[in-house]
Write a structure and sequence with these properties.
The chain has 90 residues and is mainly alpha-helical. The chain has a single domain, classed as 3-Layer(aba) Sandwich (Rossmann fold). The protein contains 4 helices and 2 strands, in the order H-H-E-H-E-H. Strands 1-2 form a two-stranded parallel sheet. The longest helix is centred in the first third of the chain and has 12 residues. It is globular.
Length: 90
């Protein structure tokens, strides 16, 4: 699970090149926020609290949210990589 410090570091990195970034502790927090119509993408940890990143991707698809997702993890393995690729993860 990604720590608050790690989320902030990624947000700072994205903002350092002039892009707007927001970070969220959970998938539910992301879903509860109103999103602007601006081009966007998610940098999503595979291991989220409450549900996996892949489960969250599935939930987004079910609710009609179409947004590119870049998955990251510090604990990946071959089966997880294959599962992620099957659902078109980057």
């Amino acid at each position: 699970m990604m720590t608050a410090a790690c989320r902030q570091a990624i947000q700072d990195l994205v903002e350092s090149v002039g892009l707007r970034a927001e970070s969220f502790a959970t998938g539910e927090e992301f879903l509860s926020r109103k999103r602007a119509g601006d081009p966007s993408c998610l940098v999503l940890d595979v291991r989220l609290p409450q549900m996996s990143g892949l489960d969250f991707q599935h939930r987004l698809a079910e609710t009609g949210v179409q947004i590119p997702i870049i998955f990251i993890t510090a604990r990946g393995d071959i089966p997880l990589s294959l599962k992620s690729l099957k659902v078109r993860a980057v």
